[in-house]
Structures are given as C-alpha cells and as structure tokens.
Design a protein that fits this description.
Radius of gyration of chain B: 34 Å
Strand content of chain A: 25-35%
Order of helices and strands of chain A: EEEEEHEEHEH
Distance between the termini of chain A: 27 Å
Strand order of the largest sheet of chain B: 1-4-5-6-2-3
Structural class of chain B: alpha+beta
Helix content of chain A: 10-25%
Number of helices of chain B: 14
Number of helices of chain A: 3
Order of helices and strands of chain B: HEHHHHHEEHHHHHHHHEEEE
Shape of chain B: extended
Helix content of chain B: 40-55%
Radius of gyration of chain A: 15 Å
Shape of chain A: globular
Largest sheet of chain A: 6 strands, antiparallel
Strand content of chain B: 5-15%
Oligomer: heterodimer
Chain lengths: ~130, ~550
Amino acid sequence: MSSFIPGQPLTAVVQRIQIQKLRQGDNLILGFSIGGGIDQDPGQNPFSDDKTDKGIYVTRITPRGPADEAGLKMGDKLMQVNGWDMTMVTHDQARKRLTKKNEDVVRLLVTRRSLEEAVKHSMGSYPRQ
Amino acid sequence: MDTESTYSGYSYYSGRSRGSHRHGERSRDRHKSRSKDSRSEKSVTITTPPAEPLLGDSSVRGEQVQDDNWGETTTAVTGTSEHSLSQEDIVRITKDLEDSVGLDCRRYFTLTLAVIMGLLVFLTPLAFLALPHLLWPEKLQTCGTACEGLFISVAFKLLILLLAVWALFFRPPRAGLPRVFVFRALLAVLVLLFVVSYWLFYGVRILDSQDENYQGIVQYAVSLVDALLFIHYLAIVLLELRQLQPCFSVCVARSTDGEMRHYNLGQLSIQRAALAILEHYYCDFPVHNPALLSASKSRAAKHLAGLKVYNVDGEFPAAPADGPGNNAAAASAGMAHSQSRAMIAAAARRRDTSHNELYYEEAEHERRVRKRKSRLVVAVEEAFTHIKRMQEEEQKKAPGDVMDPREAAQAIFPSMARALQKYLRTTKQQHCHSMESIQQHLAFCITNNMTPKAFLECYLTPGPTLQYSRDHWRARQWTLVSEASVTNGLKDGSTFVLRCADFSLVVTTKRIPYIQMSEEYIDPKSHKFVLRLQSETSV
C-alpha cells in the first residue's frame, strides 16, 4: 500500500468486492470483523505496513461466510463501503456503515499489498507502447 | 596528598623477609621489583603488644602507637602455635627473638620522639609567658585586665588542645604497618617547623631586645596556641575525614575457596587499605577450613595420575664433546616441554568420566549431611527438654539437685555429643570446635534461654573468623605483596595480595565513577493520559 500521508491524496490499487448479507435470525451479517479507526491505536494493528495508518482493516473472516465467498481476505484495508469513505472514520462509524439494516448488499473497495505487486508485475511484462 | 604511611616499628615480621625489611625501611627504596625474591615484599603484620601507658599528658603527634589490640605480644613465643614445635618453628623462634630487639628499639624511639615533641609543643606557650618574668622582671609592664583575660584564654585553649590531642592520637594501636605513616610525619614536621619559627622570632625580637610590653608577649603566646589548634584541625581532616567518603570499591577474594566480598573505601594508601580490608576480613569472611579443599586436590591429582609418558625413542640425543652438560640440560628441558604438551593433548582427547563421579559423590555427601543433621536436631531437642529453668520461689522451696548452667550443660551434653560429633565430622568442622568450647556454648545458651535451634546455629553454618577461638584464626601475620609502593594511594585497577601462611587474599580496586547529573522539571499538571484502544467488531 502506498505510504499514508494525512491530508494528501491517497493512491491505491483497489479491488471491488460485493458481499451479499446473510440473514441469521434477526441480524444481517457479513461474516468478517474489522479493526482500526481514527480513534484507535494504530500501533497495535498487525496488518498495516505503516503503523500510523488509522484505516479500517479486516481482522478476521468467518470461514465459508459471505465475505469469504466474495473473496475478502484477512488483512485487507477497506477504502470505501457503498461509496462512503473508510480511510478517515472512527471505528463506530465504520461499523455503522457496514451494518445498515436497510441495505442487504455492500460494495467494498479494498486494497492489499498483493494487488499492487500484481499490477506492477503485469505492467512490467508488457513492453511499453 | 594521597600517600600515607606509618612508622612501621612494630610490625614487621613475616615468615620470610627478615633482614630485607630493615634495609627496605631505611633506604625507603620504592622501585617496583617483582622478583620472587622475598626481599621485595613489604610486610604488614598485625602484631599485638598491649596498649602502652603513654607517658605524660602531652601530644604525641608523630608517634606510632599502632599495634593490634588483641592483647598478644610481638615476641615469638605467641607467634607460634601452642601445639608442637617443629624444627622450622625453632628456627623461626630464634630469628624472631633477634628481630624483636630491633623492633622494640624502633618503637620506643618513635615513642620518645613523639613525647619529646609533645612536651615541647605544650610547654612553649607557658615558656613564652614565664620567661619575661624570669629574665627581666623589673622592666616588664604590669599585666592589666585585658592581659589577665588573655591568661584565661591561653589556659583554656591549652586544655582544649590537650583533650583534642588525647582524643585523636591516644588510641590503642590497631596494627603495625610496614612503612611510615606519611601524613603523621608531615604533620610532625609542620608542627616542629612552626614551633621553631615561633621560638626564633621570640628569641630575636623579644629575648634579645627585652621587650617590656607584656601584653604583646601574651598575645603572641595566644596566637601560638590558636595556630596549634588549627594544625590540630588540619590533622583531623587529613587523618580522619579524608578517607571517609567512599571512592573505591575493592573486591577481596580468598585464594583457596574463592570466597568473595566487596567493600567501599575512601582515598587511602595501599597499606592502610590493606589494614582496613584485613579488619573486615576477620569480621566478615567465614572461617578458612582447609579440610574442605582436599576433595578438589585429589581430583586434580587423579587427572594427572592417569597419564604416563613413555619415551620410546631413547633418552638423550648424543651429546657433543664441548658442552655435554649444557646440551643434556637443553635436551631434557625440551623433552619435558614436549612431554607436558603430549600430556595435555592426551588428557583433552580421552573421555573423562570424572564429572560423573563428582556429581554422584556430591549428591551422596549432601544426603549424608542432611541425615546427620536431622539426627542431630532431634537429639538436641530431646536433650533440651530435660532441662527446665527453676523459678525464684521454687529455688527456696526445693534446694535439692539444683545445678548451675555449667553443670546443667555437662548433664545434658552426653546425650547429644555423639550426634554432634558425627555431624561435625561429616561437614569437616571437627577441628574448629573443641569439647570445651561446645560445652561452654551450651551453658551460655541454657543461661540465656535459647532454643535448641539457636544453640545449633553456630555449628550448622560457618561463622566469621573472629568468632572462633584464637588458635583457629590461622593467620595473624600477613604479608602485603604489591607491585606499587605501599605508600602510594589506591588507584583504579590497582591490585595487591595479602598473604598469610595458609592462603592469600587477592584484592582488586575499581574507582567509583564520576557522576554527571542534570535536572529536569516536570510540571505536576502535565500528567495526562489517553485511552488507546484496538477494538475488533464483527459485522
């Protein structure tokens, strides 16, 4: 992931993931856990490259849950949820964006380190035109 | 000045370097000689004449009443053991007798010198005051009130000086050191110069011109006494106060069993530091027990005994005619060299199982000691139950079969004697405690209502050397072996060895570092905290 400078535009290679919420009793669940937020301690985040990054990260994926089947991986950083920005939100705001009762599908933009490398790799193998 | 030393009149005999001491002392040669020749050793002996009744009431600044106060004399009779005299002892006795004459002369010489100087110093102000009245009484102005007031001041200052000198210098000597105590010598010289210069001035300006102003003379005498008091202050600072602040940390290790202690010393000369260390040694170090070292010696012997070197090729190469002795010696030296190397190599290669034996032997010994100890504890506890202290009223009522502590101890001792003896033998302490001393200790414990455990404690753990009877101290004469001159001050990294007949104490010094401290102010209102969370929510 590109280095994170607060206040400066962020460039990242993102993947679009669409997750269909699963109904379990009275709740709609997505099948993953998030950590991070601007009100949290970024130093304790095991998934971030830059330990000052206060973004929202995926910390756990329920196996065979909706997120797992949609292709979300542990350690992914959420950039947008249904168009809402996730890079500068508190933990609670992030949770609210993801658990809106009137939405049953969430479209996420996530980034991870392997995406950048894959892009670089693929660009490098093609001669410049 | 960092160097100090004492007039070493009293002290110097070590078993080895005899005549050399006199030479070394008179010539004061300070160059380092590291030869094995014992003439280069400087000896510290803790020899102990009883505290001298010092003559007169005068100050004795330069004198050296520094002998050990343990009540023993420097003559050879007490220097040897009370048991049997070997040939070596007899030789030593005769040599000591020769030496002690020289020692006494020296000691008395410094003593008389100091007494003379003290008398001189004390009587000088009185002489200053009395001489005008004796020599030119008619010309002298009468002494007014201010002048007589000064008499009182002189009297009291002299009294204070007397008491102060008595407090500082009239103390029983602790030890005899090899070299002159430099600070004391310097002070003596200073006082002497001072008094002589005052006499000169007095002689020239007052006696010759027969000054009539008596008040001026009295003030002159008062100024002398004041200056003497200030010199005494200087003496206190140099002799007592300077070494109080700790500057060095010394590590003292006993060579035989590695027992180690650390002490903090101030700025002292090597010989005074050695003295301080020896005093600490007697109070802190557990008693030296040579019986405990025999095990490692036998192991060492076994290491070497297992290997024998055989020379298969023949004894010596053919010696040429011109230097047969030389060549043979060289050849044999070379052969010995190669032999020892071969032995070391072979010892390294062979598979040694002695560690196994050591381990099991130690475990077995431990078990045996613990068994004996438990038997001993039970026996002593049972013995103590037979004794009960009689109360006052009972004493009047039943006078029969009443015992004092010694008899009580003798009554219960036999029941525990065997267990105690076996325990002492297992822990190899049996030579440290005699039957008599055990019984005395038992009587002491009974008198003071001590429990059996309190009675046993001194046999279960070895105490400091001082607590044992005198014949078990095993060392009263020490030799200070030092590469630097013993009147030099302690320095960082200086080492010296205090050697006695059975073992030696190796001393190394380290300087306490200079500490640079800075301050930082913290506003009490600046202590603020935030919560740092890392919560995980499942969605």
